[in-house]
């Protein structure tokens, strides 16, 4: 599923994309270094987020726990 820019949370910018398999991951950062990663499958979209260490978390993005939007934010 190609990323659509209207899917981003305001003030966050796309930073990384992993579309290498059936599951796609999209990383977003804001100017403070806060981040979220969105995982997209054929049937769902889930999120995880943090306030620091984006690079370290992107490195393990396939192993992170993801939640529904209202739980993550």
Features of this protein?
alpha+beta, about 15% helix, 4 strands, about 70 residues, four-stranded antiparallel sheet, globular
Question: How would you describe this protein?
Answer:
This protein has 73 residues and is α+β, with helices and mostly antiparallel strands. It has one domain (5-72). It is built from two helices and four strands, in the order ββββαα. It has a four-stranded antiparallel sheet, with no helix packed on it. The longest helix has 6 residues, at 54-59. The mean pLDDT is 91.
Short structural description:
With 73 residues, the chain is of the alpha+beta class. It has helices at 54-59, 69-72; strands spanning 13-18, 24-29, 35-40, 45-50. It has one domain.
Structural class by helix and strand composition: alpha+beta
Counting DSSP E segments of at least 2 residues, the number of strands comes to 4
Number of helices: 2
What's the N-to-C terminus distance?
23 Å
Order of helices and strands: EEEEHH
**Physical arrangement of strands within the biggest beta sheet:** 1-2-3-4
* Percent of sequence in beta strands: 25-35%
Low-confidence stretches: none
Main beta sheet: 4 strands, antiparallel
Mean pLDDT: 91
Q: Work out the count of structural domains.
A: 1
* Helix share, percent: 10-25%
- What coarse outline follows from CA principal-axis ratios? globular
Radius of gyration: 11 Å
């Amino acid at each position: 599923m190609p990323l659509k820019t209207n899917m981003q949370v305001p003030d966050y910018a796309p930073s990384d994309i992993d579309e290498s398999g059936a599951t796609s991951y999209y990383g977003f950062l804001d100017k403070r270094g806060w981040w979220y990663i969105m995982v997209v499958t054929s049937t769902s979209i889930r999120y995880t987020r943090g306030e620091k260490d984006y690079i370290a978390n992107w490195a393990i993005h396939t192993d992170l726990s993801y939640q529904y939007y209202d739980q993550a934010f």
